[in-house]
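Bug report (template v2)

What were you trying to do?
Predict the complex of my protein with adenosine-5'-triphosphate.

What happened?
Run completed; filing so the output is reviewed.

Input:
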Amino acid sequence: MHFQRLRLAGFKSFVDPTEFRIEPGLTGIVGPNGCGKSNLLEALRWVMGANSAKAMRAGGMDDVIFAGASNRPSRNHAEVSLTIDNSARRAPPAFNDHPVIEVVRRIDRGAGSTYRINGREVRAKDVQLLFADASTGASSPALVRQGQISELIAAKPQNRRLILEEAAGVSGLHSRRHEAELRLRAAETNLTRLDDVARELE
Ligand code: ATP
């Protein structure tokens, strides 16, 4: 899947609508200290479903909304949209009819996040699975933040294994297995309930 465009509005320091075109190949972000390089990477993680405020260097999720500056009032919502080129059909098969996929996450102060894929409202889980099935996502090792290489060298073997699983593309399968197990458990509970009802009727 090729990320084509990232649009931000009201996200951290990007208060005005800002658009970045992402060309094929390696992308580097350069600029003076504090200009918002890390905020950009965080916007990418956030739109892919990151749900830890700590990973966003924020106290709470609302902190990703522009907090105001000396000459600008704060905002009450933030939106990030990621456009993916799927002309090579690298996205999961469910998206084969979509040559372009647009994922949008919006947060309203005090009201949490909503997600849309190609205009249709979906759950955070759906967005996370779309990226996990394509072997990427908010915790993808392809997004390297400051200090991450030294953390990797010092990491415990179990944590390094998670990174290898992500790179091998099996982490999407883990999430799907977990979802299937939850559904199975709910079905078992329903069956037990039905048995009780049937016994009462006998
Ligand atoms: P460095 O090179 O020092 O790592 P950087 O280019 O990665 O810097 P960021 O850390 O992405 O810069 O951006 C920091 C800037 O973003 C700071 O000026 C900070 O005030 C601003 N910022 C972060 N969160 C918000 C917010 N919610 N509202 C407004 N501005 C914010």
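What did the reviewer find?
The beta strands are 2-9, 18-21, 77-85, 100-108, 112-117, 120-122. The radius of gyration is 20 Å.
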